[in-house]
Amino acid sequence: MRTKTQLTQFFAWNCQSTEYKKYLYSKFPEHFVWDDKKKEWKPSQRGVSIGRIAYAASSEGEKYYLRILLAHVKGPTSFIDLLTINGYTCSSFQKVALKHEITAVDNVAELSLLENVDSQMSCTLRKLFASLLVFCEPPNPREFWTTYYPHLSKDFRYREPNNPQSVMKLTVRNVQQSLDSMGKSFLDFWAS
């Protein structure tokens, strides 16, 4: 017998009614709650909660492309349904993602930080930022830095509200320490 997972039970809800097919997998938990004992989704009685799709790096192949599809395709009813586009069933999630033309617009690094800015402390975000620079290779590292610097430096700005130069130095130094542990430097990303 197959194990019921949150994903397979999400598919099951989508099979039940077209009403549920309007949700992306990441948005489904905003309206439903997972019962771990019964291994099923139940309509939420307490309002909205936040859902999240597990991170997958581009080096993880099909898992990565499955994540992309789940972040962009509303209401899939099965893995076969996710593999099917315009009546044609593709042999891999990568091929489906390419046919949907969503791999070009997907930015894993951006999505990963965006998912975490409201729930993680700045020190955790700085480590994540360094990892994303190294492993996801965002297309424009300087823009990535500029966009997320306010979140990366929040604790230092709180500590030194009147010294933006010190805040910048502390933030850069802290991210650089994480990069050092991975054998990288800011210069590896800024030089290009």
Q: Give a count of the beta strands, DSSP E runs of length 2 or more.
A: 4
Distance between the termini: 52 Å
Largest sheet, order of strands side by side? 1-2
Cα-based radius of gyration, to the nearest Å: 20 Å
How many domains in all? 2
Q: How do the SSEs run, as a string of H and E?
A: HEEHHEEHHHHHHH
- Helicity, as a percent range: 40-55%
Which parts are unreliable, with pLDDT below 50 for 5 consecutive residues or more? Answer: none
Beta-strand percent range: 5-15%
Q: What is the general shape?
A: globular
Instruction: Tally the helices.
Output: 10
Quick one: biggest sheet?
Answer: 2 strands, antiparallel
What is the typical, i.e. mean, pLDDT? 84
Which class do the helix and strand fractions yield? mainly alpha
